[in-house]
UniProtKB/TrEMBL annotation, chain A:
Domain V-ATPase proteolipid subunit C-like residues, every copy: 9-69
Entry-linked HAMAP family: ATP_synth_c_bact (MF_01396)
Complex and partners: F-type ATPases have 2 components, F(1) - the catalytic core - and F(0) - the membrane proton channel. F(1) has five subunits: alpha(3), beta(3), gamma(1), delta(1), epsilon(1). F(0) has three main subunits: a(1), b(2) and c(10-14). The alpha and beta chains form an alternating ring which encloses part of the gamma chain. F(1) is attached to F(0) by a central stalk formed by the gamma and epsilon chains, while a peripheral stalk is formed by the delta and b chains.
Source species: Christiangramia forsetii (strain DSM 17595 / CGMCC 1.15422 / KT0803) (Gramella forsetii)
Organism phylogeny: Bacteria, Pseudomonadati, Bacteroidota, Flavobacteriia, Flavobacteriales
Protein name: ATP synthase subunit c
Keyword field contains GTP-binding: no
Top-level taxon in the UniProt lineage: Bacteria
Gene Ontology CC: plasma membrane; proton-transporting ATP synthase complex; proton-transporting two-sector ATPase complex, proton-transporting domain
Amino acid sequence: MELLYVGLAALGAGLAVLGAGVGVGKIGGSAMDAIARQPEASGKIQTAMIIAAALVEGVALFGVVASLLGVLR
Amino acid sequence: MTAQKSFKIIVTLLLTSIPFLSFSNEQAEEQEGKEKFNATEMIMHHIGDAHSWHFFGEGESAAVLPLPVILYTDNGLVSFMSSEFHHDTEGHHVVEKDGMSFVNYHENIYRLNPGAEEVEFDAEHQILNGSEPLDFSITKNVAALFLTVILMLVFFLSLSGHHKKNTHAPKGFNNLLETLVLFVRDEIALPNIGEKKYRKFMPFLLTVFFFIWITNILGLLPGAANVTGNIAVTVSLGLFTLVLILINGNKAYWQHIFWMPGVPTFVKPILAIVEIMGFFIKPIALMIRLFANITAGHIVVLSLLGLIFILESTGVAGVSVPFALFITVLELLVAFLQAFIFTMLSALFIGMAVEEHEHH
């Protein structure tokens, strides 16, 4: 039973990472496109990219914290 | 030239490995002893709060800064130094004070019932014959928080002192601080709150930005406390933003929450529910984001180093130490980024609350 909880928590953390990976990947890809089109705006694009990436990462960390609570019940 | 450069690189690498010294010390000694190495326990010990500030070493030779324990019991305030527990966190060492006896069980202070001489546990390691008094102790986190406050006072009093006397830009460290202050003003406050009202919120935004950044960086030092990775600290920071929105929200803002203009009447109550939920979720998201980012960073570094002891092989160190170093350097970026994000989102939420709606 204990092992099941730990396994489920690990699965949850993995799913959270999966989502964040897709999200950050899309943000990074779009930012690359945008910089390639307008290299002179790269500074602004980078700032916006980092903010968006941090927001996505935050959501992933919600998942990680939830799974952590599952393990450390 | 090349020799000088490579020497520089070696020195930098050696310096960057200093943060791991305290971990390695401790784990090696834990390993020698009794039972199997317990990674969860080690990680929880490192990211948790404590009643004494432990730097390195084990047992009697450990470098520990004792901190005052302040308890509010039925018989009034009681205080003593945490060194009276003699590094015991298993509840075995009983401290007698003002006719009451206290034990430290996993950094929770319990007061034993009158007449009890020793701790009794039930099958699930819950203390049977004691209760927890209200704990106002200066714990490790509180002490680290005070340290940040002192640092900020020293930094910014000297900066403001400079500007009282001179009109030209300051030199050296103060110049760096001024650059950051201008960064907060020009990149965070001005675009999000607007030119008319940003000045009123600058003190809050600057304080939050520098407080989070300095505590994050101090938290990366060896033996330091994990202040922003403590949910109570981030709750308080989130509450400040909530209170500022509550106080400064203008008529249009509240109207948009409770009775959204410009939509059919039957949608208005539904939107009101969603908006009220959103009102509370904003600071909760702020609080969880900071807490989770900092705690996750610490856990990742500690887990990587813990791998060496879980697999019981020194060869793993060749992989896990450089990777832990990489994560630590990444954490330096995260320390700044989280301070920036928290301040930015606070400014954004405040900006939404004070925005003037001219036409609809």
